[in-house]
Amino acid sequence: MTTSTYSRRRALGLGVAAATGALAAPSLVRANATIDWKMVTSWQKNLPGPGVTAQRICDRIETLSGGRMRVRLSAAGELVPALGVLDAVAGGTAQMGHTASFFWQGKMPAAVFFTAIPFGLTPLEHMTWIEQGGGQALWDELYAPFGVKPVMAGNTGVQMGGWFKREITSLNDLAGLKIRMPGLGGEVLRRLGATPVALPPGEIFQALQSGVIDATEFLGPWSDQAMGFQKVAKYYYAPGFHEPNGTGEALFNKAALEGLPAELQAIVLEACRAENALALTESEWMNAGSLATLQEKDGVDVRFYPDDVLAGLRKESAAVLADFATRDPLSGRIYESYAAAIARLAPWSRVSVQRFLSARDGA
Residues of the signal sequence (predicted)? Predict the structure, then answer.
């Protein structure tokens, strides 16, 4: 048996009936056999937003396959740590994962572009770049060395700026601020004097409550309310300059995915695509309701970053992003593709959505 054959079999991890034994190749799986996969995630089980999305993808795959394929979900920490999803999928511990690309910034810095970057694309614009502007091909190329296929799989929408224990009235208030903010937003704040702290989702509340951090961002009102941040911080800032989009990613062990029959490959990929749209609409609806509850029942003070703070954030964001142009050839191409998408889509967004919203509000 060759090493590649063994690795392929391990990655597939086909949970067929005992009579089938160890199969020499995926093509020998009986037509009536049930394929059992594992999904590992970066989220607490059924966390509003991404946790709910991950479970729905599993459920949808089983339904659409008529029970031919089951995907069993392990929440963060159950099988692998929250930030161990990529390694688990790459190594075959699980055939599938659900997470967010900015967690892999340390392994491949340009991964952040596939969740969100400061002052970047909105959810619809981001989806357009991935599906119409060449983003998916670049995403595939970036993850190829890990033997992993990434796709969009859920979206938590435009993010909030974060929860703060004290007011932010000027750039000076950022000096020394300990804040949980992953991705490039954390680097932007670092350049403005803050101290970004890397924490997986399950550790944020305790860190905020205990004073390990002074502030945190996470997602939007629906997920943030479920995390309980309103119990320990009352200032809730907008806009989410660091994450104007909330794309979640499904990761597939490439050997496992390609070892499925063609119709099951289509099912798992379309299950993710369907969830991408459903999750965005759900987040928009639930965020609106949760924001009202946070303000009216929990006494949360929704604030907007002062103009000078936004100007400083925008300036430093441009400097941080410019580094990608010369970091390495692939990062440069991803940066250029993303910038080209903004240049193409932003004028249309201003003419269409921005002007309409102003007109609707009478502004």
Answer: 1-24
